[in-house]
């Protein structure tokens, strides 16, 4: 961000306050900046300037004239944070108790660093208010803190929709809004954050489908679990470069896209507690860096893909609480790093020898509630027979046997 002073228009009132107006109108801001710096007027002005600032990104507040700030960046930060504080309805841990006065960098949860474009100017580079149980809305102009590289507010009681102005965080790398009460659709404004690597929106009340553009972003971690997202996964999920994707406890449905096998850097994939159907794709065997794979509590059918034997780094595999059938394969139970393997509450009818007596004593296999006649804690024949004997259609969840 080039000089936050670009966003300041300063006028002296007859009282002991300064009234500041912040705007993101480029032509207006550029002219004001040149006057502040004593530069000549722009010789090539916009031939069709818009004299009115964008009302969505314009606001005014007053600052006590007795307060002094090292630079205009921190003055603007003071105004933004004070506006945000006014919208807080509860602060039971008193995290914001010292959000007073001109020393913005001493505020709880506010971290300052040298500006990325001016090493002589300090700026607000991070906000971390995790676990504060703070209630209220995000400040409507919080995105004006354009030098933020991390914004963490998890485990609070913020609510409402995620404001569009977050798209102004042009150097933000970490966004954690988890464990709050945010509502609405997936916030497409986060797709406009060019530097974002870590996205955590879990434990909110967000709903609707995921935009395909999410998986085209250069994200390392995507946490969207425990929301109300729905619909099928975008077919381009395989474009993601993420190492961790967690989409559990939502309402996703449909088949797992075969493109999933393209995510060569993926280490953890957790899709549990949804409504996924169809068969597990053989392409899962291409994810050779996986350490955790969890498809539990869905409506998956068919058999375990033999290609899973290529997952040499896999430590945990959970396919429990589905409608999978057939044998539990030696090649899976023999994976060198596998320690936890759950097939509970499916319709498997046989454990191959390496699963019956694992070579590794530390390997735990949970095989309860299946259809293995010689094992304890299994389903009855009446429950097993209709599922085990019906034809499987991997494109549609199942095709019932005609009676």
Automatic annotation (TrEMBL):
<protein>
    <recommendedName>
        <fullName>Cell wall hydroxyproline-rich glycoprotein</fullName>
    </recommendedName>
</protein>
<keyword id="KW-0379">Hydroxylation</keyword>
<dbReference type="InterPro" id="IPR001611">
    <property type="entry name" value="Leu-rich_rpt"/>
</dbReference>
<dbReference type="GO" id="GO:0071555">
    <property type="term" value="P:cell wall organization"/>
</dbReference>
<dbReference type="InterPro" id="IPR051582">
    <property type="entry name" value="LRR_extensin-like_regulator"/>
</dbReference>
<keyword id="KW-0433">Leucine-rich repeat</keyword>
<dbReference type="GO" id="GO:0051707">
    <property type="term" value="P:response to other organism"/>
</dbReference>
<keyword id="KW-0472">Membrane</keyword>
<keyword id="KW-0134">Cell wall</keyword>
<dbReference type="GO" id="GO:0006952">
    <property type="term" value="P:defense response"/>
</dbReference>
<dbReference type="InterPro" id="IPR003591">
    <property type="entry name" value="Leu-rich_rpt_typical-subtyp"/>
</dbReference>
<keyword id="KW-0732">Signal</keyword>
<feature type="domain" description="Leucine-rich repeat-containing N-terminal plant-type">
    <location>
        <begin position="80"/>
        <end position="112"/>
    </location>
</feature>
<keyword id="KW-0677">Repeat</keyword>
<keyword id="KW-0325">Glycoprotein</keyword>
<keyword id="KW-1133">Transmembrane helix</keyword>
<dbReference type="Pfam" id="PF13855">
    <property type="entry name" value="LRR_8"/>
</dbReference>
<keyword id="KW-0812">Transmembrane</keyword>
<dbReference type="Pfam" id="PF08263">
    <property type="entry name" value="LRRNT_2"/>
</dbReference>
<keyword id="KW-0964">Secreted</keyword>
<dbReference type="Pfam" id="PF00560">
    <property type="entry name" value="LRR_1"/>
</dbReference>
<dbReference type="InterPro" id="IPR032675">
    <property type="entry name" value="LRR_dom_sf"/>
</dbReference>
<keyword id="KW-0961">Cell wall biogenesis/degradation</keyword>
<dbReference type="InterPro" id="IPR013210">
    <property type="entry name" value="LRR_N_plant-typ"/>
</dbReference>
